[in-house]
Write a structure and sequence with these properties.
heterodimer, A: 149 residues, Arc Repressor Mutant, subunit A, three-stranded antiparallel β-sheet, disordered N terminus, disordered C terminus, B: 935 residues, alpha+beta, six-stranded mixed β-barrel
Chain lengths: 149, 935
Amino acid sequence: MTFAKTRLVSPSARGSIMTDNGPAHDTALSMLPVNPRDFLILFSLVDGERHGYGVLKHVSEESEGRVRLDPANLYRSLKRLMKDGLVAETEKRPASDLDEKRRRYYGLTELGTQVVAAEATRLSKLADAARSRNLVTEPAIVHESEKSR
Amino acid sequence: MKRGARGEKGDLAERLYRLLMLSYPAEFRAACAQDAAEVFGDLHREERANGGSIAVLKLWGRTFFQTFSGAARERWPALEQSHAGRAERGATPSVSASRAVGKLSPVRPPKGPRASFGEVLRDLSADFRHALRASANAPGFSLVVIVTLALGIGATTAIFSVVNGVLLKPLPYDNPDELLYIHERTESFGAMSVSYPDFLDWREQNTVFEEMAVFTGLEANLSDDGIPVEISGTLASAPVFAVLRTEALLGRTFTEEEDQAGAPPVAVLSHAFWQERFGEDPDIVGRVVHIDDHPCTILGVMPPGFTFPRLSESPDLWAPAGLRAEGWKQNRGNHPGLSAVARVKPGVTLDRARADMAAIMERLEAEYPDTNTGVEALVRPMSEALLGRYESTLGYIFLGVALVLLIACGNVANLLLARGTFRHQEMAIRSALGASRGRIARLVLTESITYWLAGGFAGLMVAYAGTVLLGRWLANLIPRIETIAIDAQVLSFALGVSMITGIAFGLVPALRSAPGALQESLKEGGRAISGVGRNKTRQRLIIAELALAQTLLIVAGLVIHSFSLLVAADPGFEATNLLTARISLPEERYPELSQRDEFFHQLLERVRALPGTVSATVAGPIPLDPKSGWQNGYYVEGDPIPEPGMGPYIEVFAVSDDYFTTMGIPLIRGRYLTREDGNAATVHVLVDRTFAERHWPDADPIGRRFAFGSPDSLEELEGEDWRWMEVVGVVGAVKDRGIAEESLVQMYMPFEQDNDHSWSLVARTDGSPLELADPVRQIVQELDSNLPVADIVPMQRYLDDTTIPDRILSTLLGAFAAAALLLAAVGVYGVISHDAATRTHEIGVRMAIGASSGKVLLLVVRQALVMVGTGMLLGVALSFLASRWLSAELYGVSTVDPLTLIGAPLFLCGIAVAATLLPARRAARVDPLIALRSE
């Protein structure tokens, strides 16, 4: 799994952004579990920055249409995630010819990346446990385990 | 913030969404509203493109609820935090409040994890029980609130039940969305009935319809060893039952073989007719009755509730159209009153069906230029064809009642706010004891919603009474009105309306229940004060109410003015004291025209001799009768030969002598028709003034000639078939399709020269026209004991029927405007008197230092006038927007009708000032000593 290179550090990020993995990782672990909607929003930003509509579409697709955020609630969540230091508005945007509307873009912070990865790991472990009890009927999506840094 | 490329405000969906976003706190809106609205715009476009209007509706429904729940969650934590923030600064309301009530320590629930679902439910039920107790403690107040809401919600629900029953419910056929009505139209004539040869080609050439059929009305005499009755049936081609996917309850429907010219006559009975006329005879199938003296075998009985083509009154029977088809086949240019009904194949859209029909019509035009040039197919969904006329009327009525509901809700919100000022102490104590502001807000909101639900419940009773009354009043005026009922949809509508208005309007007092000034109530020793903000909110509510009431009043004024003009307008003849009755002579017994003439001349002689008859005549068709009508293309001698399909059309009436004096149509030039004209070799005719002015503006029309049809060449005019008619007189124009409808030019020919067998008797009476009904029936019986008389109807009713939608609209909007006015006046009264009461102290001081009671009166009235004036201006502005839509519904009235635009605001002002004067005078009579002592 690769992450977009540009990550902005939110000024209001919870605690300071650590350069080493230790304490920041702990912070990330302390924020689990992430509520499913927030996870879907964070997950949609893993491949790179998106604007609000892009997040909304991605969330709807990933949840197979089960989670349909309305725009105001999407921005409420984004606002909260920014306050928690998981998401930041980005300065860099895709090439201007693809971006006629000049919207605001959102990307994951370091912490956000760690939280989404930690949550994915947690879910994956949960899924493994479920699978070992034959609860999973469909071929499960294979999660890549957390990337070591 | 960056704006979207589509411009400052975005499209309509975005703007509406921004309105929804008003439920969020201003701070949140400033940060996110623009982006959220743009995202919503994208979503909206995508849903519309992919899923059509259903998907858009779902999106709106989802968004509506999510926005409000999001807004509530966004607001309440904010309240919690501001409370906590103040506590840290040491100036928390609960601390100061606790000082005021004694040594209570500030208790605040620690901000722990979110309450579990069970806890929330327990809290809610506690709130609900509290709300019930609180409303029981103030029975008078509760009664006013619940009655106001019940009337508003009940009226809205009753109107919705009409909209639901008439417009929203699917038509009573299998997959009704697949059913289409097809007619034809040309530029010069407009919509017209279907030519039978054209229909046969449609049926053969189309690729989009599963099946199609034609139908038309059948007025005939049925005799079955009893008294003859005139029946109202439908002639339809055999596939009609397949199109409608309905089978017979008893026996069977007719087949293609039975639907041929020359086949022995058969018929299928409606369930009601079978019950009524044949006493549910189980052996009805195979029985032979006489229809217009032909023996006719009854094949079956349709199931109860099946009706076609009208939705309300089922025809008595259906018979194969093939009986008449031979005549219809002769001439492609003949449009003999047929309509076509078709069912599209699954998946075929309306556009595709239209395109397919257009392609066929083009081919027919190329093949038969004489008859088909310029003729197009008019393809409409069945529901639109049958109910479209009522759509806008019912839409306006629903909007009108929704405004009344909003005003009623505004009033109740106002009452709750006013009561809130007296409950400040209660709230302050709750706060001091540790209730968070969010908790208090929720308590107040639960109370509001409880009132709204109680109002909704009581409203259902109002709605029930309303549907009964509306059903009775509108019976025979609107199709399908007998189906209106309080059913599941209507119930959920009432519940939804109660909840949504309850939450929206309940939020106002809820958010106002915990302002920063709570502690003031305790500090000030318990004197109830009304916060400035609270009063502002109440005034704004009243201004909004006044604006809505003003809009409704103006719109109702315009509609009523238009209706009064419509009723007073001159239809071109005197409709009062005229009796009409239809008599059809069976061709079997009256094969010769002379026999027919003899019958009617005898009939006229005897009817004229009746006491109470002023004069009598026979005519066919008669103006305004929806069951008949005769139009022909014509050519005026000396005019250039028209392009194919572009010739003009004329409305034709065949009449006996005395028609014009009986109807009261004035003679302008020349002479009336006489009995001698009936036998003249040339056809002598009268034309209406419009015809004469159009074709011979500067010349004498008398002696001029014209003919039916449209010649292809000048040579054709010399031929034997070409039959000129000579104008012998000019009469006034008649509004023969109703006052507001354009009429064609008109002509009158002697009825003796027409070969029809069905005629209307028209008699002018000197008393009530219906008093003549029985004597006329008896005369007909004496002349021919096997002849029924049908549709004995006063002419005035035909005239009234043309203004049904206008009558309904003006009556209901008038009633709603009155209700709105009353509610707004009550609202103004409430705010002013409450305000004056809370200012008793201030007024006392003013008077103690020398203010006269006149000055005090002025003070109170001036405040009211500002409110009324603002509301009035807003209302006038709103009504401009509303009346732009309305202009199509208005007759003879401009949307800027000065009478209404000046009168209505003055009226509103008058009522509002009257509502102000009472509390103002009470305030002015305040005794300063008592007022100051009330400290």
